[in-house]
Design a protein that fits this description.
The protein is an all-alpha fold. It has helices spanning 2-30, 38-54, 59-83, 88-107, 140-158, 160-170, 172-177, 182-208, 220-230, 235-257, 264-268, 270-284, 286-292, and strands spanning 121-122, 137-138.
Length: 303
């Protein structure tokens, strides 16, 4: 029971970096752009945010700086992939490597330093419930990420903006023929994805684990990319997928605390093993992928 309480209380916080980055990538992919540089965008955002907080700038400024850095790097990807019509896979990988390199460069002098995290906010009454009460005691960024999930879901479900994003992802030629600026919409979607990835990195470095270590993103960007496929490009499924990966990442710690005699490396690799298994299961269901997939994902478009 103690292990269950531990996992439930920390699940949302552990899921937040995955969720923020995956939501940003979802918007970009819904617009037809595949950006494989999420890991690098998160790493750069993490470094910028940590440096700002360490020098007394505060978390709000840190998240703003990280989001801006992520958006600017994403715009560089957009220039290559959408402006110059470069291959999106190659451009995304290059941007990811660049982001990780810049992160290592900026963070070199801050190795192993720590900063102060954020206080937690509880929901009166619900936080006192047995077993599940910890779910309702979270830091402000977790609550904001839940609000962002609802906002993105509502945007796709009920607004013209969501309809336009889906249109340029499904059939950009048709959207262009009726007067919509496909490239501009895709650039905006990519910038939003970079903004969210920057936020995800900032959360990982200044709130969830408020210390700096080179490589601290540790594959979270790749899991966020996998989450979009895992959720079959649907916001609600991506949210539950992020919660699953958050719970799995904590399950290893709970197992170690419970005396399970397994190598720590194996327990640490559990989220990645689950990613492989889940993607294998999802990929075998071609009907599901075809039903919810984005028809023009990764395909270049020239007006």
């Amino acid at each position: 029971m103690i292990a269950v309480e531990f996992i439930l209380s920390g699940m949302l916080a552990a899921a937040t970096p995955f969720l923020l980055a995956a939501l940003g990538e979802l918007v970009g992919e819904r617009a037809g752009v595949l950006n494989l540089g999420v890991e690098g965008l998160m790493a750069l955002g993490a470094a910028i945010a940590f440096i700002i907080v360490y020098h007394g700038g505060g978390h709000v400024l840190a998240f703003a700086g990280a989001g801006l850095a992520g958006a600017l790097l994403a715009l560089l990807f957009a220039f290559a992939a959408l402006g110059l019509q470069a291959n999106q896979v190659a451009a995304g990988l290059a941007i990811g490597i660049l982001g990780q390199g810049l992160s290592a460069l900026f963070g070199k002098t801050y190795e192993s330093l720590t900063v102060k995290g954020l206080p937690k906010l509880s929901v009166p009454g619900l936080s006192d419930l047995p077993v599940v009460g910890g779910l309702f005691v979270q830091d402000p960024v977790v609550w904001l990420s839940l609000a962002a999930t609802l906002a993105i879901w509502a945007t796709f479900a009920f607004t013209k903006t969501g309809l336009l994003l889906r249109a340029v992802g499904e059939n950009p030629k048709a959207a262009h023929s009726i007067g919509y600026p496909v490239i501009a919409i895709r650039v905006a979607a990519v910038a939003f994805g970079g903004l969210m990835a920057g936020f995800a990195g900032a959360y990982a470095a200044t709130v969830y684990t408020p210390l700096w270590a080179d490589g601290m993103i540790a594959g979270r960007g790749w899991i966020a990319l996998a989450l979009v496929v895992f959720g079959t490009w649907l916001t609600a499924r991506i949210f539950w997928g992020a919660c699953l990966f958050g719970a799995v990442s904590l399950a290893g710690l709970a197992a170690q605390a419970g005396g399970v005699e397994l190598p720590s490396q194996l327990l640490a690799s559990m989220p990645y093993l689950v990613t492989i298994v889940v993607l294998g299961i999802i990929s075998s269901n071609r009907r599901l992928l075809k039903l919810n997939g984005v028809a023009s994902l990764g395909e270049p478009f020239k007006p």
